[in-house]
Prior knowledge:
single chain; 7-stranded mixed sheet; 2 helices; disordered N terminus
Amino acid sequence: xxxxxxxxxxxxxxxxxxxxxxxxxxxxxxxxxxxxxxxxxxxxxxxxxxxxxxxxxxxxxxxxxxxxxxxxxxxxxxxxxxxxxxxxxxxxxxxxxxxxxxxxxxxxxxxxxxxxxxxxxxxxxxxxxxxxxxxxxxxxxxxxxxxxxxxxxxxxxxxxxxxxxxxxxxxxxxxxxxxxxxxxxxxxxxxxxxxxxxxxxxxxxxxxxxxxxxxxxxxxxxxxxxxxxxxxxxxxxxxxxxxxxxxxxxxxxxxxxxxxxxxxxxxxxxxxx
Length: 273
């Protein structure tokens, strides 16, 4: 009977699966994300940050990538199991070839039974350090552990004044590491300096799911909402037993979903810090 139920569930999932197709032109963009440094970065279709990707459990995600950079590129879906497609999982020249400048490649990514909070990033020459990343949300087809009114996402990123290849060349040129002048990063929230990030408005009494993604290269982030408790319901793309916490400590690549109930008063506002 259990075997029949598993077959039925898998068949049912297949009946509802869809094909989501995106066209990405990966190229250089210019701007100031940290409200301090105007610099070259890597975006998609002329945008940085570029839009999050939303699909549903069981869907096939097709990304047609054209490389408009002057160096090879590739992408990686952080957290996707890639069963049967492990060649998509590693950086270029390890399990996949990079896409040469001016060329294109189509990634066919099966979500299968996975759902949760993920992110997509460049997997060549640390291009994610120059902005080539975005959230991937795979929505579940089943009822969440805790029912909520609305869902939002928050991303945390470290951002440096120089492009990665410039910083790497500087470090490689040193004969003595003691002479290193360190590069310090700024912190970005949802793609921008906290002073420019659009505020999140809570409606008193409503329950929210926050999908929190640390798209950092080196730095850890701590997250909390003063005066509020948070209930963790997902960690790194895996549904978890509800756990109430005061805050989160997140390293590069980590993702959490938390449930937050807004206070029944709109008197207090908080700044990003």
